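Q: Hi! First time doing this. I have a protein sequence and I read that you can turn it into a structure. Is that right? Here it is:
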Amino acid sequence: MLLAVAGGLLLVWLVVLALLWRTRPDGLTAREALRLLPDLVRLVRRLAADRSLPRTVRVRLWLLLAYLLSPVDLVPDVVPVLGYADDVVVTAWALRSVVRRAGDDALARHWPGEAAGLAVVRRLAGLTRPPPPG
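A: Yes, that's right. Below is the predicted 3D structure, encoded as structure tokens:
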């Protein structure tokens, strides 16, 4: 019985990994996203503290921060490349959700890094093109 439960959990874990891999943003490499991790964490913290955003958005962001800072991941970080790729995919899912509700202007207002990094974050969040200047 214990072996069947362990096998079932392993199967569910493999399915989740496959779904994470399939839903990663097109053209975005894990290396590119990982370089932005410090700025992404600051962005998420700033957005989560912004009381002008809806409460549901802020709760999602606090949950994302807890996941990123937690030592427990879907894929352990000791697994080369894939260990950090799950963090990238979960962050992309959360950012897409936040940008849909909060808008791109909130993303730009709270971005702590360079413009090139913001362009990558916009791609990570599912925005295909930057907003017009102005």
